[in-house]
Amino acid sequence: MPQPALIELKSVSKDYTIGDETLHALANVSLSIKPGEFIAITGPSGSGKSTLANIIGGLDKPDSGSVEVEGADLAKAGDRQLSVYRNKHIGFVFQAFNLQPTYTALENVMLPLVLAGAGGKERKARAQECLNDVGLADRMSHRPTQLSGGQRQRVSIARALANKPSIIIADEPTGNLDSAKGREIMTLLAGLNKQGITLIIITHDMEVAKQASRVLSIHDGAVKEGRS
Amino acid sequence: MRLIDIFTTASGNMFRSKLRTTLTIVAIFIGSFTLTLTSGLGTGISSYIDKQVGNLGGKDVLIVQPIGQGPGSDSGPKAYDPAKKTSATAFGTTTTALTDSDITKIKSVSGIRSVEPNFVVVTDYIVGPNGKKYQVSANPYVSGTKVELATGDQVSNDVSERQALLPVDYVPALGFANNEAVVGKSVTLGVTDGNGKQHQITAALKGVQQKGLTNSGGMNTNEALTQEIYRTQSLGLPKAVTNNYQALLAKFDANASPGQITHLKDELKKKGYAAKTIEDQIGTFKAVISGIIAVLNAFAVIALLAASFGIINTLLMSVQERTKEIGLMKAMGMGGGRIFLLFSTEAVLLGFWGSLIGVGVAEVVGRVANHIVTTTFLKDLPGLQLLTFPPISILAIMGLVMGIALLAGTLPATRAARQSPIDSLRYE
Ligand SMILES: Nc1ncnc2c1ncn2[C@@H]1O[C@H](COP(=O)(O)OP(=O)(O)O)[C@@H](O)[C@H]1O
Ligand SMILES: [Mg+2]
After folding, report:
1. Full-model pTM
2. Tens place of pLDDT for every residue, chain A, 228 residues?
């Protein structure tokens, strides 16, 4: 019996017009993501990988087509609904970490909990738990500048985990790291997938793509199953 | 996100750029400080005037004159009517005189209890223990008036003794040792009659009167004394002249409502008389003062509006600087509404601190200024608080400033709320 889809994209297109040239960042993409999948999205630079990830994560909206999550269409959702979706269901991990430089590791991880309206004790306990899970129990009160690149990415993974998301979207998470540190981060993310979190990773790295249960490759906005 | 978290986050963000925030707060401070001082001045002066009017008593008195009298009347030249006599006033203008028949007519208006002529009495000099003669003017005392006293008691209109109050600066001039030495003593007044002959009238001194807005120099004389001066100055004048009055004082029920007073005025108007209460007369003066204060307040509000551009500027810069942070907050699930609220809160906090410091410093400066002014060049006006800061107007000013700040914050806050998270995160 086929598993019901977690996210269903139907004929999703996104265009950018620069001058009088139209660029198809995503061209008629249809795809179905099932719970617990580990998907690697590969493709050359500028092919539309981030655009696809942002649409799945509710950060961006398609020009046409639908993005169905639990029966609702993200393409038609309002700001409030999308905000709740991003806060409760999605954890983002960025290439540039995007940590708050003035906050400690703990405070950075507490941010999504603060946004969710969690109480003081609860947010601290949960943030400590998440930092512990990524192996940074002894770096809670360090600021981002006092941490190495790999440690910073761990903090951002802990932050993505804070609200117990069903999906983690990582856009080139190892792009700013050396290969040894990159492998550590990949092991960490793959471990989270084994615990049941759906994982979508954008990467150039074929070694990374190999660990995934499913590979999607994009060329000029068109998605193909499997390695290209 | 909880409101308390929005508040603490906004509060923390505000001081990330300390210098810029401080400068903006200084601009708001200047506006609030000025507004607090000007409005404090307005309140201080008008409450002083109110108190003076309260001291006047005579709340049950209408000053009645024929309609169209005096300078500034809008009725143009009036045709000569031999039935209407004229009398010369102290101001040199010719006015229609009132006679005993007017007294009867006004008395017949229901609600009027009694009508008395408003005597204009003229004294030549006053002389005391040291025998030196000084010029003095006389103010007929109106029953119920509380003249501000340095010592002694008010005079009474119900006794046959001729009583007066001595203005405070006559105390040493006439040769009295001090204010207390005046009470119970008597002075002599010189009055010239209709034939040019000078008479002397003795008056008992009941007390020493302070200077005030409403009794600038003239000595208060009770009814017995006023009558005697009037009788003396009228000696030798034909009855037709002595029974001509410039104005009449009509008394009504002291508990009359404003509506009833208006009704009385209307009734008198129908009969051809213009009637004013003492408060009406002071009211014109108050209107001028309020006008001046309103202009000063307007300048302060302009300063605040200028400061509001400082708020807009500061917040636009911080939206710009925090582009990436705003994108991140959005990616983590902060909605546009909450982002708007965050920046609006920051704007209101700028307004709060600026206005708090502004009203605080204004209060201190106001107290010091009050002390200096009332102990130096305005010390003759006891009870004057040049600047008063009732809590309600302090709160109103802070509310106004925070309201202006909130409005100023809408532009930057809207810009932040509308920012696209992807563009913000891409921003390098
Ligand atoms: N805001 C934008 N305006 C114009 N073009 C854009 C914008 N965002 C993305 N693009 C273009 O869309 C294409 C896909 O971008 P993106 O999804 O970021 O590619 P990548 O696969 O490198 O992540 C690129 O050619 C990019 O230049
Ligand atoms: Mg990309």
Report:
1. 0.75
2. 567 888 999 999 999 998 889 999 999 999 999 999 999 999 999 999 999 999 999 999 999 999 999 888 999 999 999 999 999 999 999 999 999 999 999 999 999 999 999 998 999 999 999 999 999 999 999 999 999 999 999 999 999 999 999 999 999 999 999 999 999 999 999 999 999 999 999 998 888 888 999 999 999 999 999 876
Q: Is the pLDDT at B285 greater than 60, yes or no?
A: yes
- Looking at B222, B244, B266, the residue that finishes a domain is B244
Count of Cβ atoms closer than 10 Å to residue B44 Cβ: 20
| CATH label of the domain that carries residue A171 | 3.40.50.300
CA distance B345 to chain A (A): 16
Contact A115 B325 (CB under 8 A): no
Instruction: Report the nearest atom of ligand 1 relative to the CA of A218.
Output: 21
Q: In whole angstroms, give the CA distance from residue B64 to residue B170.
A: 33
In a mutational test of the pocket of ligand 1, which residue from A18, A20, A22, A23 has the highest number of ligand atoms less than 8 Å from its CB?
Answer: A23
Q: Say if the ipTM goes beyond 0.90.
A: yes
Its domain, for residue A210, covers 36-58+79-225
What secondary structure does DSSP assign to B105-129, as a single string?
A: HHHTSTTEEEEEE-------EEE-T
Residues B371 and B302 in one domain: yes
- The Cα B172–Cα B188 span in angstroms is 16
Domain that holds residue B104: 61-118+245-252
Q: Are residues B208 and B133 in the same domain?
A: yes
B136 in a structural domain: yes
pLDDT band at B282 (very low <50, low <70, confident <90, very high): confident
Q: Say if A48 falls within a structural domain.
A: yes
Count the domains in chain A. 1
CA dihedral B314, B316, B320, B321 (to 10 degrees): 20
Cα separation, A35 vs A200, whole angstroms: 11
Compare CB distances from A79 to B324, B332, B336 and report the shortest one's residue: B336
Q: Test B337 with A84 for CB contact under 8 angstroms.
A: no
